[in-house]
Amino acid sequence: MEMAGLPYIVGNWKMNGTRAMLNEARAIDRAAARFPKVQVAVAPPATLIYRTRDAAAIIGVGGQDCHAEESGAFTGDISAQMLKDAGADFTIVGHSERRTLHGESDADVKAKAEAALGAGLGVILCVGETESQRDAGEAETVVGAQLEGSCPRVDGAPEKLSVAYEPVWAIGTGRVPSVEDVAAMHKAIRAKLVALYGEGGADVRILYGGSVKADNAAELLAVPEVGGALVGGASLSAESFLAIVGAAASLDAD
Ligand SMILES: O=C[C@H](O)COP(=O)(O)O
C-alpha cells in the first residue's frame, strides 16, 4: 500500500502490547477513515501482526525488524517472507535500538532492507546520530555514512522505501531537535538519496522520529522534506496517536 505524497504516520509499538492492544488498533483504524489524506500504519510486536491485520481494514501493518535470510536455523528470528505471510505490508529496519542493542551494522541493515523489498514489503529504514556525534558536529556525516551503508541496492528500491531520521538522543527522551536542525538534516538526507538513486531518490519519503507528540507534531511535520513521523511512545494509545494523525491532516488542509 504505497501512497507516496501523503504524509505517512507510523506507530512503532516496540516491545509493547498483548491482545488488549488490539482495541487501540481498532480505534486507530476506525478513525483513519476520517483522514483519507494521511497514510496511517502501526508496527506492533510480531506476535500481534496477524491479529492486527485481521482487526484493521484501512491502516498499514508492519514488522519492526526482519532477518535477511528467507528461512533457516536462526532461532528467534523472523524472515521478511514470514512477516508478509502474517499480513504485514512493510517492516522497519535499522532502528537504533536494533543497531545498538543487537549490534546491527549498516551491512546487516542493508541486507534486511533488500530481503524485505524482495519479499514485497515496504521498508522504513532508520538512521540517526547520537548526542555526542551531534555535539561534535558530525551528525550529517554520520547519517550520510549510514545511508551509504544501509540503503538497499535493488531494482526499483526507492518506490517502496522510506527513510526515518531518528536522532538517538531524541528517542523516548522528550527532547527534539530544532526545526532548523531537522530541516538541515532532511535536506542532507534528500541529497544523499538523490546521489544514491538518481531521480527516484527525490520521491523517497523521509520521516522524522524521536519524541513526536500531539503538541509538537504540527511544527515538525511542517518542516520541508518531512514526509511523516515514526512515533514510539505516543503511538501506544489511540488517542495520542490520532492527535498526531490529526495534526498531519490539518497541515494538508492548510
Ligand atoms: O520508532 C520510534 C522512535 O524510536 C521514537 O520513539 P519515541 O516517539 O518514543 O521517542
Automatic annotation (TrEMBL):
Name of the protein described by the UniProt record: Triosephosphate isomerase
Record lineage: Bacteria, Pseudomonadati, Pseudomonadota, Alphaproteobacteria, Sphingomonadales
Gene3D superfamilies registered for this protein in UniProt: Aldolase class I
Major location category of this protein: cytoplasm
Keyword Thylakoid annotated: no
Signal peptide per UniProt: none
Protein purpose: Involved in the gluconeogenesis. Catalyzes stereospecifically the conversion of dihydroxyacetone phosphate (DHAP) to D-glyceraldehyde-3-phosphate (G3P).
Active-site residues, as the UniProt record annotates them: 95 (electrophile), 166 (proton acceptor)
Subcellular location: Cytoplasm
EC number of this enzyme: 5.3.1.1
Quaternary organization: Homodimer.
Gene: tpiA
A Pfam family assignment: TIM
GO CC annotation: cytosol
Residues the entry annotates as binding substrate: 12-14, 172, 211, 232-233
NCBIfam families: tim
One example GO MF annotation: triose-phosphate isomerase activity
Pathway: Carbohydrate degradation; glycolysis; D-glyceraldehyde 3-phosphate from glycerone phosphate: step 1/1; Carbohydrate biosynthesis; gluconeogenesis; Carbohydrate metabolism; erythritol degradation
Enzyme class: isomerase
PROSITE patterns listed in its UniProt record: TIM_1 (PS00171), TIM_2 (PS51440)
Keyword annotations: Cytoplasm, Gluconeogenesis, Glycolysis, Isomerase
Biological process, per Gene Ontology: gluconeogenesis; glyceraldehyde-3-phosphate biosynthetic process; glycerol catabolic process; glycolytic process
Protein family membership: Belongs to the triosephosphate isomerase family.
Catalytic activity: L-erythrulose 1-phosphate = D-erythrulose 4-phosphate; D-glyceraldehyde 3-phosphate = dihydroxyacetone phosphate
Presence of the UniProt keyword Cytoplasm in the record: yes
Record organism: Novosphingobium pentaromativorans US6-1
